[in-house]
Design goal:
Helix content: 25-40%
Shape: globular
CATH class of the largest domain: Mainly Beta
Number of domains: 3
Oligomer: single chain
Order of helices and strands: HHEHEEEEEEHEEEEEEEHEEEEHEE
CATH architecture of the largest domain: Beta Barrel
Strand content: 25-35%
Distance between the termini: 81 Å
Amino acid sequence: MRRKFFALAVAFVVAVSAVLMFITFAGETNSTANESTNPQTMPVKISVLSKISEFRKRLYAKSAKAVVAIESIATRRAGKVRSGSGFFISEDGLILTSLLNIDLRDKTVKITLFNGETAVAKVVSRDARNACALLKLAQNVKVPAFLEFADSRTAKLAEPVFVIANTFDEELETFEPVMSAGEITGFYRPVVLDTGKDVVRFRGLYRGPVIETSCAINDGSFGAPLLNTKGEVLAVVCKAISYARWLGTAIPIHQIKLNLENLKNSKPGKPAKIRFTVEQAQNNRLKISKLFEDARYNNIKPGDVILRVDNEIINGSKLKFEAIINILPLGARVYFTLERAGKIIRTAEFLE
């Protein structure tokens, strides 16, 4: 009897709950339908969308004229095509772009401006560690517009951003670059990630800090500016895409500015330096032997054994250690795994 009563009670509760859920759902549905068809709320929604659209149009009109399409002359002579994006950063014709758009043999490149006018730009300098190059107009061509730099160190997660680029050679064909909208989705360095099951690596050679974005990044986008809502350059779109995340990345402009004056003077970018010496220790281990007097590290001491750098296992190899350090740009934050007196120490240090 008790079991039958309990079963009936449970059935009654379930039935009442279902009825209440249906009433609630129906009410919400009707409310949503009424909102969407309510003539008083519809103009508000349309007004907001209209304002967003108008804002993007103004941003595009203001910034797109500074974006150029870049074609490698040396690659074209070899019967191939290498093209991408760049943008003016000064009134005298300096252009910042990705190193991916420039062949090692290029002394000059072809650029196409917003109005379809073509010109030749001289390769002023290359910065391999920051994966960028600086060009300058070699002809007496008027610069239609140039972009100002933002302070990329103040950029925030979820901040709206925009990319204007020669995506799929659109600027070469229509003389108008493509605009993509998104937001900042992360800040990190493209280091090797050991998940315990597999090793996740990154495309591209750049190993400095990046701003990750949900903006569409496609062929031709590399070298394009990542803009904030003021139309200022936060970063330069690069090729350092994680196989795990598949989101676009860009090099923060404050990172590029560390070497920009050298590039303007046709000098190579300064390499990052470690402020300590290493030596081979017993059992084929790599040990920190001495810290320089001007070294400023959080948690590195003489005698520490280096196990990993940016999650790459060193295995006591001085050559491997130097190979990893040598591709890092000035100002990069490096992750060390050390052994000290039998304990594992993990520390993040900036290279000066």
